[in-house]
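One chain given next:
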Amino acid sequence: ARIIKHPIFIVLDALDECPLGFKLVAAIQRLGHDFNLLITSRRVFSQIEKYPSLRIRAADRDILAVIDDRIPALPYVRKDEDLQTTVRTEVVAKANGMFLLASLKLWELEHDVASKGDVRKVL
């Protein structure tokens, strides 16, 4: 048998989206301690809360920068300053520190609206 001497890293991304995530974590824990484990999740679960953790959240100003960059592509928003303010406020609130949610909402505003009324419904 060959012994591995370099560090081993295991990354489990989006544990909260994996139906078998906790079984996988339990199986990895049974392997011992000769590896580095990084788990990402939007929520902290009891099965992993005993480990050191770091909460990472996008700053609202960074999400606003993404929104401001995309506003020119939003057909019913780009020429309406009041609607721009509403989009900024609502998307930041709904994103809750997650770029992905902001990006999805902006994509929807760019591709799935047919009127200013639809913009408000999407928000």
In short: The radius of gyration is 21 Å. The longest strand covers residues 9-12.
